[in-house]
Design goal:
Distance between the termini: 21 Å
CATH superfamily of the largest domain: Metal-dependent hydrolases
Domain Amidohydrolase-related: 50-404
Structural class: alpha/beta
Shape: globular
Mean pLDDT: 95
Strand content: 15-25%
Number of domains: 2
CATH architecture of the largest domain: Alpha-Beta Barrel
Protein name: Peptidase M38
Radius of gyration: 20 Å
Strand order of the largest sheet: 3-2-7-19-20-21
Pfam family, one: Amidohydro_1
Largest sheet: 6 strands, mixed
Number of strands: 21
GO molecular function, one term: hydrolase activity, acting on carbon-nitrogen (but not peptide) bonds
């Protein structure tokens, strides 16, 4: 790809250090120098713009880009589902997100298609289908529908929301199948959820011994388990079983947060989806009963964030957006900036998320040797975090050194 220099930008490197005005040199998809360079090459004049690392969303659902209830009830064709997924993948890039962790909904073929460059999209790490307890969170079939028919909702190579397990042996078989399909980590639902059909937020799902089976299978492949968990009992079960990350963490308490620190377990809160479901439930293709379930979750998740910060838990950032309205993915940073500082929100969405995803030093920082994933913003989002929420403010996006969006 040759050498490229971005000159004149204010650089916020993802480490938490103060912004500096410095040139950045890229070559063959990597950052080679941060500072003045006498090397020749193509130049991008970026005076007046702010450069950040490409953002990372640690909790996405690309496979849930169509209205949810119609998709689950076979009212949308595979072609339309694919079109919606591809549009959402492109919108993630346009919002400044160059890496995402898909926590359930896509099958391996979608990841490969984006990686080959056939569809615009960020770098995708995927768990494949979510691992769920029979009848638990993640199962959206009708009450009369036999559990074994649920897999007929999958579109092989494109989308596969969840797999059901009734015991540890079934779970072991299912996680091995997920790895066969290309999963790079595992996700289990260990409590009920907000978008639920057969469960409550207070439910715990899977035993410690069952979760440990998935942890064992992940460790055998050099990877990890993350868990969907709202209530504290479910969070603690997962931590005791060896999970490495907790999604949501709504009712996390002090003692469990301390255990997370002791065992180096990360937390990924998800505020944007709560706002989405409170204010536009229908837009996600869901009924009003979902809105009733989410009431109070934001307040408790805010308290859990404070508890986790006080304890010293490593805290990433995820949007968890679902349905068609996923273009304002940066809303998560704006919401987090209201609860922390804008710089802390940016670090969570870059350096910390890279650590959680196992990509530390490769993405999420502006430093020599890292992938040249960069965003140039019209303004300084560390001073005005509202800028993160509007994709139009990301005027130039580079993924591995290639320009994938240019509004200059």
């Amino acid at each position: 790809m040759g050498r490229l220099q971005v000159v004149g930008a204010t650089v916020v490197d993802g480490s938490g250090r103060e912004p500096v005005d410095v040139d950045v040199t890229l070559e063959d998809g990597q950052i080679t120098q941060v500072g003045a360079s006498g090397a020749r090459g193509e130049r991008i004049e970026a005076g007046g713009l702010t450069m950040t690392p490409g953002l990372i969303d640690a909790h996405v659902h690309l496979g849930l880009s169509s209205p949810i209830q119609p998709q689950f009830s076979f009212q949308i064709s595979a072609a339309e589902i694919a079109a919606d997924i591809f549009a959402t993948a492109g919108a993630a890039l346009d919002a400044g997100f160059t890496t995402v962790r898909d926590t359930g909904g896509v099958d391996g073929g979608l990841v490969t298609t984006i990686a080959k460059g056939k569809v615009r999209g960020p770098r995708v790490l995927s768990c494949g289908p979510v691992q769920c307890q029979t009848g638990g969170h993640g199962y959206y079939g009708a009450d009369w529908e036999p559990t074994e028919l649920w897999s007929s909702h999958h579109v092989p190579g494109l989308c596969a929301l969840s797999m059901m397990s009734g015991n540890a042996d079934e779970l072991r078989a299912n996680v091995r199948e997920a790895f066969r399909r290309g999963a790079s980590f595992l996700k289990l639902c260990v409590t009920g959820g907000v978008v639920g059909a057969h469960d409550r937020l207070t439910d715990t799902q899977f035993t410690v011994e069952e979760i440990a089976v998935a942890v064992q299978e992940a460790a055998a492949r050099g990877t990890y388990v993350t868990v969907h968990a709202h209530n504290n009992d479910g969070i603690r079960n997962a931590v005791e079983a060896g999970a490495r990350c907790v999604e949501h963490g709504t009712d996390l308490d002090e003692s469990t947060a301390a255990l997370m620190v002791a065992r180096d377990v990360a937390l990924v809160p998800t505020f944007a989806v709560v706002e989405q479901l409170l204010h536009d439930t229908a837009g996600a293709g869901l009924g009003e009963s979902t809105r009733d379930r989410v009431l109070g979750v934001r307040e408790r998740m805010t308290e859990a964030l404070a508890v986790a910060k006080e304890a010293g838990v490593r805290i990433g950032l995820g949007s968890d957006l679902i349905g068609p309205a996923q273009h304002r993915r940066g809303e998560e940073l704006r919401l987090r900036a209201e609860l922390e500082t804008p710089m802390e929100a940016l670090v969570a969405a870059t350096k910390t998320n890279a650590e959680i995803l196992g990509l530390s030093g490769q993405v999420g920082v502006i430093a020599p040797g890292a992938q040249a994933d960069l965003v140039l913003w019209n303004g300084n989002p560390v001073e005005d975090p509202e800028l993160f929420a509007d994709p139009a403010n990301a005027v130039l996006v580079l993924k591995a050194g290639r320009i994938v969006k240019d509004l200059r």
